[in-house]
From TrEMBL:
It holds the Pfam family Amidohydro_2. GO terms for cellular component: cytosol. This is 2,3-dihydroxybenzoic acid decarboxylase. GO terms for biological process: secondary metabolic process. PANTHER family: 2-AMINO-3-CARBOXYLMUCONATE-6-SEMIALDEHYDE DECARBOXYLASE, AMIDOHYDROLASE FAMILY PROTEIN (AFU_ORTHOLOGUE AFUA_7G05840). Keywords: Decarboxylase, Lyase. Residues 65-328 form the Amidohydrolase-related domain. The keyword Amino-acid biosynthesis does not apply. The keyword Lyase applies. Transmembrane segments: none annotated. One of its GO terms (molecular function) is carboxy-lyase activity.
Amino acid sequence: MLGKIILEEAFALPRLEEKTRWWAGMFSTDPETHVQEIQDLNDLRIKHADKHGVGYQILSYTTPGVQDIWDQKEAQALALEINDFVAEKLKQFPDHLGAFATLSMHDPKEAAAELRRTVTEYGFKGALVNDTQRSGPDGDDMIFYDNPKWDVFWETCTELDVPVYIHPRNPTGTIYEKLWKDRSWLVGPPLSFAQGVSLHVLGMVTNGVFDRNPKLQIIIGHMGEHIPFDMWRINHWFEDRKKLLGLDCKKTIREYFNENIWITTSGHFSTTTLNFCLAEVSSDRILFSVDYPFETFEDGCTWFDNAELNTRDRLKIGRENAKNLFKLEEYKDSDAKVI
């Protein structure tokens, strides 16, 4: 399929190359290639996209990013630097590249202001945050965004009509020491990423974020961070047990997924899994993505182009849903077709 749109595609600041190389050592068997790819914004990734039928990419700063910085002033300064950096790079390929804002999530008003700046001045397509924000004097606290204090931020998202992608980050501090240190190979895609994001998103559901902000749109990657596979069980316990005990969700978990939550295929290239998500979530709420450079264009695109899908669902997942969500009316897809 030509003209695909992808939206969980990472970059890093060249000046932080040593930190990027350290991070690559945790996830890549070829750290040097990873560093080269993640620091490149508009050469290698454009060539990969052209080769594999991707017409438009939305870029975001790599995990753990600003969410790993517990000093508020330092985090805000880095977020501004990243946003200004990528905005300048986008000018070279405006028809092929977009970006999510990088935000310090220490303060909801500060985060809302930076989101507004990047959307109105740079045309960013929303924001991507790497799960909870580290905070506290030693970085061992975590800020969740699921209580009423954060409504000023979520209200800004709905006013600007842009989504927020909640992406994972690695466990840190005492959480890492107590849960993950002795089983460190489970950090990242094998388990910890899904555990962190699913806790955060389900916290938003049960703490009323979507009830107070019914038009809010949230994206989660990796085929829904395990939530679709527990959809029946979550719904059963919410509706048949928890609400009778005082849970105050206005809608069912399925309704929140129908109205507020999107999932992407990023880094999860299984047709069996996709078919399951089609049954539980529907093609109306699924978006194609690669997760480059943690995954490759070749693996993601070859899988998606050859997956057993009907033409309607392939078009919706591969391009049309993203065009509507991100208001890409001017996206040039005159040559796009299913092949």
